[in-house]
Every structure is written in structure tokens, then in C-alpha cells.
Amino acid sequence: MVWQLDLAILTLVVITAVGSLMVKDLLGAAILFGAYSFMMCALWSIMGAVDVAFTEASVGAGVSTVLFVAAVLRTSRRTRD
Amino acid sequence: MKIIGLIIAILTGVLLLSATADFPIFGDPDSPASTHLSPYYIEKTMEDTSVPNIVTAVLADYRGYDTMYETAVIFTAGLACFIILRIFVREEPGDRLYRHVLTGVTVRVKEGAKLPPSDDFERIDTMWTPPDLIIKTVCRLLIPFIQLFGLYVIAHGHHSPGGGFQGGVILGASIILLAISTDLRTAVQRMREKVDAILCPVGVIIYAGTGALCILFGFNFLDYSALAPLLHVDPITARSHGILIVEIGVGIAVMCTMIWIYNILSSGGKYDEGL
């Protein structure tokens, strides 16, 4: 385990997580959430939990982002709060 | 209101972080999990089930109940989306758009009338954009390989990371990719809603039915060694094969649920025009 890589990924996890909450544009928030899932996937695989990383990559970064985008398409793209 | 929410969130975070101090450190060999639980699985999984991937054996065999109800939860999620979002009531039929393939002329047909089916006209969405040659060709080339990889992930879950959930999601994603790269109707033609809705519970039934079959042979629920006389193998290999059977069930259920939810969500419940 390289600690520099670990630190970089952890920082990105925090940044993307806070970013996806803060961004007003919901489409951007969905994309940031996908990036967050992908960083979590990298983190799982660093920790050696390859099965969890695989699930995170396919469900979190893959399908759920598409579902969010589809939901944004059918509702509105901007939040009110 | 926002400030109260922030305070609650920070307080909960501090509480959770202070609780982590009591945890054993990551990978501690003296922690209870490493001294009591893990050695059993690491030593006995190969003798018990002849499955090299311990995670798969734990998920589908030792903790088979958990995975069965997870599959049921996924199916319930699909069902909830269907019940809440699907629209069956015929509203006043809107305009349909048709496009002449050769010239690119768009025809608007009013009041729900239909053009007679012909090769000259194709139906297009209201939010239609010209198809991109690169995207269409790449997706067409890629989708069979994605599906093949999904099947590999399901079948090879015994030896490598993967299993029913991941493989099912990959198979579902390939159909969703088809829907995105062309349009929703093309994908629905490949995977009709009825087929989708029937296969969802079928996956759950395969899982639960395998468990019930074990009861019929006089063993515990989900004790796959009961299937040995049925599969003509010894009880240990029967557990390995039993894991494969339930993984296939999980894969079918997950795949169909993903496609179902996507189709309902992207078409706004009408199953007509989508992303």
C-alpha cells in the first residue's frame, strides 16, 4: 500500500462527496457522485476487498449514475435550495 | 433550519469518529473477527464447498439467507418503481414524430394517429438528436462483448471476484447502453416489458426454490449438499454447483430489475420515449 496514493484518493473522495452535495446543477451532482463511487471503488481495491470494489464500480459508478441522469431528465435540472 | 441540520450532521460525525477509536486497527491479527471467525472460513471453505473464492462461498453458501433477501430487496425496488411511476391511463394522445430516412424530413402526426409501418419512415423521439456514427458503431461492437463479460463474471464467480450481482448489473448495463446509444424503443424490442417483469421474480424464485428443494431432500434450507443425488456428484461439489445455480438466479433478477427501473424512469412511466 502506497500511502501517497491512499492519501490522494481519500482527498478526492472527500472533495467529490462534498462537491456532489454542494453543486446546484443536479446533472453535475450526479456526475460527481459517480466520480465519488469510482474513488470509493479504488479505495476498496487498495484495501484488498476486490469483490466490494467490483460491486461499487458496476452498481455505484455505472448503473446508479445512469439512473440519476434519467431521473434528472424527467424532473428538473436545478435545485431550489 | 439549515444550521440545525449542519449541527446534527457534525455531531453525528464526531460521535461516529470517536466510536471508531474503540475499533481494532485495520488488519489487526488479535481482533475478534480475525481470531474467531476468519480462520474458520479461510481453512474450511475449500474442504466444505470446493470454492476457491472465499467471498463467493460466504455470500452464497454460509450466509445464503442474506443474499436471498438482498435479491428480494432488489426485486421489491423494481416493483416499487413500477407501481409508483408506471402510467397506464391513456391521456390524450400527443403528437408523434416521424422522420423520412432518405431525406431527413420530419413529419408530425397529430392526435395519436399512426403512419402505416414502412421502411421509408422511422419514428423518432420529441427530444431527437441526429445519431452519431461513432457512438452507434462503437456501442454496437461493444455490447456483445459486455454481455459476454457479464456471463463470464457470473460463471467465474467461484474463482475470481464477481458473482451474480456484478454480472447481472453488467448484463443490465449492456441493454441500458443500447437504449442510450439508439433509443428506448430499440431496447424494448429486444427486452419487452412483460419478459422483464416475469424474469424479475423468476430470478428470486430460482434462489428460493433451490433452498426449498433442499428441504424436500430432508436437509436445512439452502444447504446445497442436499442436491448431491440430483446432480450425481458428491456433497462437496454439490455445494459448489448450488452456489452457481443461485448466482444465476441473482443475475437474472438483478439484470431485469436494472433494465426495468431504467426504462420506467427514463420514459417517465410511459415506456414510450426515453433518454
Describe this entry's structure for a reader.
With 81 residues, chain A is an all-alpha fold. Chain A has one domain. Chain A is built from three helices and no strands. The longest helix of chain A has 25 residues, at 50-74. The N and C termini of chain A lie far apart (41 Å). The mean pLDDT of chain A is 91. Chain B is mainly α and 275 residues long. Chain B has a domain at 52-88 and 131-266. In chain B, 64% of the residues lie in helices and 5% in strands. Chain B has a three-stranded antiparallel sheet, with no helix packed on it. In chain B, strand 1 (96-100) and strand 2 form a beta hairpin. The two termini of chain B are 36 Å apart. The mean pLDDT of chain B is 88. Chain A binds chain B through residues 47, 50-51, 53-55, 58-59, 62-63, 66-67, 69-71, 73-74, and chain B through 26, 53, 55-56, 153, 161-163, 165-166, 169-170, 172-173, 176, 180, 258, 261-262, 265-266, 268, 274-275.
